[in-house]
Design a protein that fits this description.
By secondary structure, this protein is an all-beta fold. 0% of the residues lie in helices and 71% in strands. The chain has one domain (3-77).
């Protein structure tokens, strides 16, 4: 499995490659990040995909996916 590393300020995240799929104009992808020795599940959801726009939401879960906290929303347009 491919590992990616990122450093943001004093935080260091280790990530594996995302896995998921698109179904119609919606996509869901998941990966795990290690943060301070804990495994954090990350979900990326792509919505409202059209030739002119799309929306992406990122959410974190620290309980294995039982609950999610959306922490980033990206609205893209041409």
């Amino acid at each position: 499995m491919e590992h990616l590393f990122a450093r943001f300020g004093q935080r260091r995240f280790e990530r594996t490659a995302s896995r998921g799929e698109f179904n119609g104009n919606r996509g869901e992808f998941y990966d795990q990040e290690q943060y301070k020795g804990r495994s954090i599940l990350v979900r990326y959801v792509w919505l409202n995909i059209s030739p002119k726009s799309a929306r992406m939401e990122q959410a974190f879960s620290n309980d294995g996916g039982k609950t999610w906290e959306t922490n980033w929303v990206c609205e893209l347009s041409r």
